[in-house]
Amino acid sequence: MKIDVGSIDDVVSLNAQIPEFNQNKLLKEKITERVRDKQHLVLVARLDGLLIGYKVGYQYSADTFYSWLGAVLPEYRGRGVATKLREFQESWAKNNGYRELEVKSMNQFPAMLNLLISSGYHIYGYQEGCIKGAGKILFSKKLV
């Protein structure tokens, strides 16, 4: 498996294959607008040249990097893909002067919650959703 800098087109293509996202297409324009004028990082995981996962983050503040989006194709889960993407992103953020990483997740993604907690992220809050069960759990991790 290889972790590389990828493109927004890579993310859109992979995202369309993630069943948990209800085929709610992640528009290229939405990603582009979110990262515009911010330092950002788009990562992809490849296995034998095939795109199998992604992670997108951007500068949230002068010392905080926000890990916004990420997913791994179902048939490649449980193989350490998300861990490799997370480790690369954390290392990149630290090397680029960020002191903290923040991420949000939801109860409907228990594997991600477990990955974050087992990787040293701490829960610091909860953001209510517009419907019951759609709230987000807020995590942070110090990088220094």
Structure report:
It is a single chain. By secondary structure, the protein is α+β, with helices and mostly antiparallel strands. 28% of the residues lie in helices and 36% in strands. It contains four helices and seven strands. The chain has a seven-stranded mixed beta sheet, sandwiched between helices. Strand 6 (122-127) and strand 7 (136-142) form a beta hairpin. The protein is globular. The two termini are 27 Å apart.
**pLDDT averaged over residues:** 93
Strand content: 35-45%
Low-confidence stretches: none
Strand order of the largest sheet: 1-2-3-4-5-7-6
Alpha-beta classification = alpha+beta
Separation, N- and C-terminal Cα atoms: 27 Å
Number of discrete helical segments: 4
Helix content: 25-40%
* Biggest sheet features: 7 strands, mixed
Written as H for each helix and E for each strand, in order along the chain, the element string is EHHEEEHEHEE
Task: Determine Rg (CA atoms, Å).
Answer: 15 Å
Q: Tell how many strands the DSSP assignment holds.
A: 7
Shape assignment: globular
